[in-house]
Amino acid sequence: MSHHLTRFIPTLAAVCMAAAACSAIPPRPPVEPTARVDTFAVLPTEAPEESDSASGGAQLEAGALTLETLLTDRFKNRTEARLVSRDQVESVATAATGSRLMVAREIGAKLQVDGVLLSTIHRFRLRNGDEYSADQPASVAFELQLLEVDSGRVLCNLVFDETQKPLLENIFSFSRAAGRGFRWVTAEELVAEGLNKKLDSCPYLPAGSSSTP
User: Fold this and answer.
1) Do 40 and 115 meet the contact criterion of CB atoms below 8 Å apart?
2) Which range, 20-24, 94-98, 102-106, 142-146, is most confident?
3) Domain locations in the chain?
4) Which candidate among 29, 34, 108, 181 keeps its CA 20 to 30 Å from the CA of 175?
Protein backbone atom coordinates (compact mmCIF):
# COMPACT_ATOMS: atom_id res chain seq x y z
CA MET A 1 0.00 0.00 0.00
CA SER A 2 2.77 2.44 0.99
CA HIS A 3 4.74 1.41 -2.13
CA HIS A 4 1.86 2.44 -4.40
CA LEU A 5 1.42 5.67 -2.48
CA THR A 6 5.13 6.47 -2.88
CA ARG A 7 4.81 6.05 -6.66
CA PHE A 8 1.60 8.09 -6.79
CA ILE A 9 2.90 11.21 -5.00
CA PRO A 10 5.60 12.18 -7.57
CA THR A 11 3.09 11.62 -10.37
CA LEU A 12 0.55 13.86 -8.68
CA ALA A 13 3.20 16.51 -8.11
CA ALA A 14 4.17 16.43 -11.78
CA VAL A 15 0.55 16.87 -12.83
CA CYS A 16 0.13 19.81 -10.48
CA MET A 17 3.33 21.44 -11.74
CA ALA A 18 2.21 21.02 -15.35
CA ALA A 19 -1.19 22.50 -14.59
CA ALA A 20 0.44 25.45 -12.84
CA ALA A 21 2.77 26.00 -15.77
CA CYS A 22 -0.15 25.95 -18.21
CA SER A 23 -2.11 28.42 -16.12
CA ALA A 24 0.90 30.73 -16.05
CA ILE A 25 1.03 30.95 -19.84
CA PRO A 26 -0.47 34.32 -20.80
CA PRO A 27 -3.39 34.21 -23.26
CA ARG A 28 -2.56 34.89 -26.89
CA PRO A 29 -3.52 38.33 -28.14
CA PRO A 30 -6.40 38.40 -30.64
CA VAL A 31 -5.37 37.98 -34.25
CA GLU A 32 -5.67 41.21 -36.18
CA PRO A 33 -7.61 41.07 -39.46
CA THR A 34 -5.28 40.67 -42.43
CA ALA A 35 -7.71 42.06 -45.00
CA ARG A 36 -8.17 45.80 -45.48
CA VAL A 37 -11.59 47.19 -46.32
CA ASP A 38 -11.07 50.93 -46.53
CA THR A 39 -14.02 51.48 -48.86
CA PHE A 40 -17.15 49.42 -49.40
CA ALA A 41 -20.46 49.42 -51.24
CA VAL A 42 -23.79 48.86 -49.48
CA LEU A 43 -26.31 46.92 -51.55
CA PRO A 44 -30.11 47.09 -51.14
CA THR A 45 -31.61 44.56 -48.72
CA GLU A 46 -33.10 41.45 -50.28
CA ALA A 47 -35.92 39.22 -49.04
CA PRO A 48 -36.49 35.58 -50.07
CA GLU A 49 -39.18 35.28 -52.70
CA GLU A 50 -40.74 32.20 -51.13
CA SER A 51 -43.18 32.79 -48.28
CA ASP A 52 -45.84 30.74 -46.51
CA SER A 53 -48.55 33.35 -47.13
CA ALA A 54 -49.23 36.66 -48.82
CA SER A 55 -49.18 38.42 -45.46
CA GLY A 56 -45.83 36.80 -44.69
CA GLY A 57 -44.44 38.09 -47.97
CA ALA A 58 -45.72 41.58 -47.25
CA GLN A 59 -44.10 41.53 -43.81
CA LEU A 60 -40.79 40.41 -45.33
CA GLU A 61 -40.96 43.30 -47.78
CA ALA A 62 -41.61 45.67 -44.88
CA GLY A 63 -38.68 44.14 -43.03
CA ALA A 64 -36.41 44.54 -46.05
CA LEU A 65 -37.37 48.21 -46.28
CA THR A 66 -36.74 48.67 -42.55
CA LEU A 67 -33.29 47.10 -42.66
CA GLU A 68 -32.35 48.93 -45.86
CA THR A 69 -33.45 52.27 -44.41
CA LEU A 70 -31.41 51.71 -41.26
CA LEU A 71 -28.32 50.85 -43.33
CA THR A 72 -28.84 53.91 -45.52
CA ASP A 73 -29.19 56.21 -42.51
CA ARG A 74 -26.06 54.75 -40.98
CA PHE A 75 -23.80 55.02 -43.98
CA LYS A 76 -25.15 57.92 -46.05
CA ASN A 77 -22.68 60.40 -44.54
CA ARG A 78 -19.69 58.03 -44.53
CA THR A 79 -17.07 58.88 -47.12
CA GLU A 80 -15.84 55.27 -47.18
CA ALA A 81 -19.30 53.90 -48.05
CA ARG A 82 -21.03 53.87 -51.43
CA LEU A 83 -24.80 53.33 -51.38
CA VAL A 84 -25.94 51.30 -54.39
CA SER A 85 -29.46 51.66 -55.77
CA ARG A 86 -31.62 48.79 -57.02
CA ASP A 87 -31.35 50.13 -60.58
CA GLN A 88 -27.56 49.91 -60.36
CA VAL A 89 -27.76 46.34 -59.07
CA GLU A 90 -30.16 45.32 -61.84
CA SER A 91 -28.01 46.89 -64.56
CA VAL A 92 -25.01 44.86 -63.43
CA ALA A 93 -27.04 41.71 -62.79
CA THR A 94 -28.30 41.65 -66.38
CA ALA A 95 -24.72 41.66 -67.68
CA ALA A 96 -23.23 39.35 -65.04
CA THR A 97 -24.00 35.70 -64.46
CA GLY A 98 -23.73 33.62 -61.32
CA SER A 99 -24.70 33.88 -57.70
CA ARG A 100 -25.63 36.98 -55.75
CA LEU A 101 -22.10 37.10 -54.33
CA MET A 102 -20.62 37.04 -57.83
CA VAL A 103 -22.85 39.91 -58.91
CA ALA A 104 -21.91 41.81 -55.74
CA ARG A 105 -18.24 41.28 -56.50
CA GLU A 106 -18.76 42.63 -60.03
CA ILE A 107 -20.49 45.71 -58.61
CA GLY A 108 -17.64 46.23 -56.17
CA ALA A 109 -15.09 46.00 -58.99
CA LYS A 110 -16.98 48.56 -61.08
CA LEU A 111 -17.16 50.96 -58.13
CA GLN A 112 -13.50 50.29 -57.28
CA VAL A 113 -14.19 49.55 -53.63
CA ASP A 114 -12.54 47.02 -51.33
CA GLY A 115 -15.69 45.36 -50.04
CA VAL A 116 -19.42 44.96 -50.51
CA LEU A 117 -21.96 44.75 -47.69
CA LEU A 118 -24.99 42.56 -48.44
CA SER A 119 -28.09 42.19 -46.29
CA THR A 120 -30.96 39.70 -46.34
CA ILE A 121 -34.12 39.70 -44.22
CA HIS A 122 -35.38 36.20 -43.38
CA ARG A 123 -38.15 36.94 -40.84
CA PHE A 124 -40.01 40.08 -39.83
CA ARG A 125 -42.98 39.38 -37.58
CA LEU A 126 -44.72 42.37 -36.07
CA ARG A 127 -45.59 42.69 -32.41
CA ASN A 128 -49.27 42.07 -31.71
CA GLY A 129 -50.20 44.29 -28.79
CA ASP A 130 -48.64 47.26 -27.08
CA GLU A 131 -45.32 47.77 -25.32
CA TYR A 132 -46.56 46.44 -21.98
CA SER A 133 -49.00 43.76 -23.11
CA ALA A 134 -48.32 41.74 -26.25
CA ASP A 135 -50.16 38.64 -27.44
CA GLN A 136 -47.40 38.02 -29.98
CA PRO A 137 -43.87 39.37 -29.54
CA ALA A 138 -41.77 40.83 -32.33
CA SER A 139 -39.56 38.33 -34.11
CA VAL A 140 -36.86 39.10 -36.68
CA ALA A 141 -34.02 37.33 -38.43
CA PHE A 142 -31.55 38.80 -40.89
CA GLU A 143 -28.08 38.20 -42.29
CA LEU A 144 -25.22 40.54 -43.16
CA GLN A 145 -22.25 39.59 -45.33
CA LEU A 146 -19.12 41.62 -45.96
CA LEU A 147 -17.50 40.47 -49.19
CA GLU A 148 -13.90 41.23 -50.12
CA VAL A 149 -13.89 42.22 -53.77
CA ASP A 150 -10.36 41.18 -54.75
CA SER A 151 -10.47 37.65 -53.32
CA GLY A 152 -14.20 36.97 -53.29
CA ARG A 153 -13.97 35.91 -49.63
CA VAL A 154 -16.79 36.56 -47.19
CA LEU A 155 -14.95 38.32 -44.38
CA CYS A 156 -17.93 38.61 -42.03
CA ASN A 157 -21.08 36.51 -42.04
CA LEU A 158 -23.34 37.94 -39.36
CA VAL A 159 -26.70 36.43 -38.43
CA PHE A 160 -29.21 37.97 -36.04
CA ASP A 161 -32.19 35.85 -35.01
CA GLU A 162 -34.37 36.77 -32.05
CA THR A 163 -37.93 36.43 -30.86
CA GLN A 164 -38.47 38.54 -27.77
CA LYS A 165 -39.38 36.43 -24.75
CA PRO A 166 -40.86 37.25 -21.35
CA LEU A 167 -38.25 37.91 -18.69
CA LEU A 168 -39.45 34.99 -16.57
CA GLU A 169 -38.71 32.57 -19.44
CA ASN A 170 -35.05 33.60 -19.50
CA ILE A 171 -33.80 35.16 -16.28
CA PHE A 172 -30.32 35.54 -17.82
CA SER A 173 -31.70 38.18 -20.20
CA PHE A 174 -32.35 40.61 -17.34
CA SER A 175 -29.80 43.19 -18.54
CA ARG A 176 -31.23 43.07 -22.07
CA ALA A 177 -34.78 43.48 -20.75
CA ALA A 178 -33.65 46.37 -18.56
CA GLY A 179 -32.04 48.07 -21.58
CA ARG A 180 -35.40 47.82 -23.34
CA GLY A 181 -37.23 49.37 -20.40
CA PHE A 182 -38.90 46.02 -19.56
CA ARG A 183 -41.29 46.47 -22.46
CA TRP A 184 -42.23 44.64 -25.62
CA VAL A 185 -40.28 46.25 -28.46
CA THR A 186 -41.43 46.59 -32.05
CA ALA A 187 -39.96 44.58 -34.91
CA GLU A 188 -38.34 47.77 -36.21
CA GLU A 189 -36.63 48.34 -32.86
CA LEU A 190 -35.47 44.74 -32.78
CA VAL A 191 -33.89 45.10 -36.24
CA ALA A 192 -32.13 48.33 -35.21
CA GLU A 193 -30.80 46.72 -32.05
CA GLY A 194 -29.56 43.65 -33.92
CA LEU A 195 -27.97 45.75 -36.65
CA ASN A 196 -25.95 47.75 -34.13
CA LYS A 197 -24.81 44.59 -32.40
CA LYS A 198 -23.78 42.75 -35.55
CA LEU A 199 -21.99 45.63 -37.27
CA ASP A 200 -20.01 46.27 -34.10
CA SER A 201 -18.80 42.66 -34.18
CA CYS A 202 -17.23 42.88 -37.67
CA PRO A 203 -13.55 43.89 -37.32
CA TYR A 204 -13.04 44.52 -41.04
CA LEU A 205 -15.28 47.57 -41.36
CA PRO A 206 -13.43 50.90 -41.35
CA ALA A 207 -13.27 52.73 -38.03
CA GLY A 208 -16.45 54.65 -37.40
CA SER A 209 -18.54 52.59 -39.82
CA SER A 210 -19.94 50.23 -37.21
CA SER A 211 -21.27 52.83 -34.82
CA THR A 212 -24.03 55.36 -35.04
CA PRO A 213 -22.75 58.83 -36.02
Assistant:
1) yes
2) 142-146
3) 40-200
4) 29
